[in-house]
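=== Structure Prediction Worksheet ===
Name of assembly: unnamed complex
Input type: mixed (protein and possibly other molecules)
Chain count: two
Listed entries:
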Amino acid sequence: MGFKRFIATRLITMFGVLMITVLLTIALVGSNMDTILVRGVSFQVREEITENRALVQGFKDIEEFDAFVQSKINQRVKELGLDEPWYSPQRLGLTLYKILILDFGHATFLTSDSGSSNVKDIIFEKLPRTILLFTTATIIISIIGIFLGAYSGSKIRSKVDRLTSSFAVVSSSFPVWWVGMLMIFVFAFTYQIFPARATPTIPITDPGYYGALLYHMILPITTIVIIGFGAWAYLVRNFMVGIMQEDFIMAKRAIGIEEKKIVYTHALKNAAPPILTVLALSLSGSLGGAIITEAVFDWPGMGRLYFEAISVMDLPVIIGSTYILTVFFLASIFLADILYGYFDPRVKTGS
Amino acid sequence: MSSFTSNEILQEFMKNKIGLVGVGILMGLITISIITAITIPAETFREWNNPTIWISYPKTSQPSWVNYFLIEKIPEHKILDSPAIGTQTSGEISVISQRFVTNYQYDSFPSDFSHEYTAKYSGTPLFEMSVTRPDRLELQLISSSLPLSQEYNVYHERVFSTDNSIRKNLQQYQDNFEFLIEDMSAEDIIFSRTDINEVLKGDYVFTVNLYGVDSENKIEESSFIIGGKAFGLMGTDELRRDLAIGLLLGTPLALFIGISVAVGSVVMGLVYGVYAGFKGKYTDETMMRLNDVVYALPALPFLIILVATISNSIFLMVGFLMIFGWVGIAKVSRSMALQIKTRQYVEASKLMGQKDRTIIFKHVIPQLLPYAFASIAISVPAAITTEAGLSFLGLGDPSFPTWGQILHDANIFGAAARGLWWWVVPPGIMIAITGLAFVFIGNALDTIANPRLKR
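=== Predicted Assembly ===
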């Protein structure tokens, strides 16, 4: 079984999972969506008819008018295929196909900052901001984590090692968003250094917008880094502890290579595959966990979009965002798998 | 992996200091839960979001113990509900009087005061309220008749310090004060020194009298509230709720959610993984592919959709959390089962013709128990924080106030940016402490289950 086949089976599984996710989402929100869509259609039809004065005056009484409106609505519902339930094969197939080509339709309530109600526009406006915030944070976390982890891994039971390990345990029990609230309390209320809300007040067209955005980013990034780096350092430390006991490290020591060089070049290089795998996973994981953190800091990204969409039950947005989040999540699992399979050949043979 | 007897595990555990700390914290939390169950009536659960029962409480008050650390004492919110009652009858006229005594020792004025009572009477009895200050000055606050009623009548009223007649009555005491009291609020006058407008400390006695010709008159459920900025053990929130009660109610809920989700998902994962590993071949392959699918589902978005569309009942939420909890445990149990399967006693019992189910439950799963217990303890914090996160987003079960919901309300009212630390800090600390207790226990169990981690 070659590497290509390994990739192929993985890809097929991932595609299957993606479809199942979308199907599950549609199944969960489908019946609601139909009711909302039908209501929207009947509202639209009624408005169109009442706007046409000549037509309205042609009716004798209100009953005739209502009957006419109802027949028009039924006709429109049939045209759109809404008379069949959401789980009928044609509709399901059509919905899946549309989602695959990133056609999520129009949002019911929400709009993008530029005013478009196309779900695709909304998502692609929010996505870069989330990536900006969380990718930056994840990169900072991994750099601190790798160096701190390598250091404490090479000096087991030293003060730094103990501190790192206990910090990792303690910090993982605090919810990130709660630490975010504390940070707002300390740095926005007690010492008014940073703004509590992460949305810049100046318009996006202003040249100073991106500077303001960066300034607003400091508080959320600090929060994510504080909570995240401990666990990372602990993980890297555990990898390092294993590697530092390997024979080839002993051999390098015996030749008289400097300890620092052994730790940061030879040992760290060998710990790279699992570290890269975890990095890939945590990059996508941060996108999912972003929902609550963004809600705390009012960061105008995917997480807050998702939250807003759920609070007003804007179904096209919910389905679209779930799809995008899943795609990212699966892509990184896939990447992690590939990286691991590439670095550790035992995985791909399945033994 | 070697097998243990439960006695050995206990002995090993007693040597682990951190593990014991974890058990200690857990014991504390269980004690709190028991105290909660005994002292707080079960209806309070449902009344948490009902504003009417919190009406006598102050808005966003600090915990009263902050006064120990302050030089300028902030006024404490006082609810005086057991007055000294006296009745007098002279001829036809009867007087019911109630005296509320409070020792006011704070450095700023109360924010308001109010008196709530239910009177049972007939005719038009006269209602009077007055206050005697520490300097013996007596101020008449209210003197008015209750509405006329021929029959025996139940009358409920709440008199606020902003009441117009209190205002008018106080103006006649201008001569006693050396400064203008015309535009001042009632509490600022009543609790003020006469020479300058500063707080006069000492005993204040508020007296309420009801004069009537009928001796059947009664005042019931009478309580006098002196509004302050500090209240109770943990203060109150914007909706006047006593946060101490909220934190107490949250403890058993968090333990329930955490433990039931952890036990449920570990049991599911264990049985699933062991069965797949033990059966092997196609069964294993299919079951593990299903496992892969659940593993690849984005948990938080899905949980949000499930809670938002199906139900936010706390019991269903526990079920939803289990759906995403068992996956990792199933993977590990499977690989452990693959190892145990090849042992001779398992082979032997197979040859003896024992049923698969018997072998799995009698010979394989008992070997995994130390791992299972460690996983249960380690899974608890994640379950608690995830539920807290969902509640924080406003998807919690409104009939059960969890710590996450308290934080949700705090966030809605911008508590962090307004500096209301007593609303933000304690719930998070409770979440973290509960999580830590289980992490400590789990780590201790883990070192027993996997001795190799010890080095």
